[in-house]
Amino acid sequence: MSSSSVPVEIPGLPPLEWGFHPGRASTVDGGLELVAHAATDWVVDPLGSPPVLNACPLGFAAPATFSLSARVSVNGPRTEFDAPVLMVWRDDAHWAKLCFERSPTGQIGPVSVINNGETSDDANAYTLPEGKDGHMWLRLSRVAEGTFVFHASTDGKWWDFVRIFRLSGTDWRVGFLSQSPTGPGCAARFDEIHLGAAPTSLRDGS
User: Fold this and answer.
1) Are 121 and 146 in contact (CB under 8 A)?
2) CATH number, domain with residue 186
3) Is residue 8 part of a domain?
4) Are residues 71 and 137 in contact, defined by beta-carbon separation less than 8 angstroms?
5) Which first-to-last residue range defines the signal peptide (predicted)?
6) C-alpha–C-alpha distance, residues 176 and 171, integer Å
7) In total, how many domains does the chain have?
8) Which of 117, 126, 124, 149 is nearest to 46 (CA)?
9) Has residue 178 been placed in a domain?
10) What ranges make up the beta strands (E) of 12-134?
């Protein structure tokens, strides 16, 4: 288990380093597990509640264009809003995350959150059928300067378009996060991790 400033090594990726503050990570069979402490999140509530920016992103400098994907799941029980996350960030006011999140209704699916300045823009994409919600694949891509795309998949082959958006600024980092806003903690698992070229078609399932 790594909680220091020593880089975390994952095959096929640059060395991973903690953003903002160190967290808890371990590597198993080429995969990654991030353990979130209780009451940890990365969000600025548009309704005006105080920002919660105490989760621990782990990542690397974002290439000019790229696609980062992983199969994601939670090791153990999960509570409301627990999620493994793919995230891109510049600072605590400019970032975006794609979560495999448990909703207040108990349903699970991809949720995207964008923060390009003062507050977060939060949107649920869809929910998975009961019994098929143990894992899914998430993909975060940078397709041009300042332009990012989120996709999600139930089989790692057909990619559902979730969101395209712009973020202002440069010097982005991209990587992984675990969150547990209302629960006692969350062990987020990432495997089948792949860093490759950005998709050229965004809405055709590729």
Assistant:
1) no
2) 2.60.120.200
3) no
4) yes
5) none
6) 17
7) 1
8) 117
9) yes
10) 17-18, 24-28, 31-37, 42-43, 52-53, 58-61, 66-74, 83-91, 94-102, 108-116, 120-124
**Are the CB atoms for 113 and 43 separated by under 8 Å?**
yes
CA dihedral 24, 50, 121, 25 (to 10 degrees): 0
**What Cα–Cα distance (Å) separates residue 102 from each residue in 16, 39, 120, 124?**
26, 15, 18, 11
Q: Is residue 7 part of a domain?
A: no
pLDDT tens per residue across span 35-72: 999 999 999 999 999 999 999 999 999 999 999 999 99
Structure tokens at 58: 């782990």
Location of structure tokens 């923060």: 115
Residue 73 sits in which domain range? 17-196
Structure pTM? 0.95
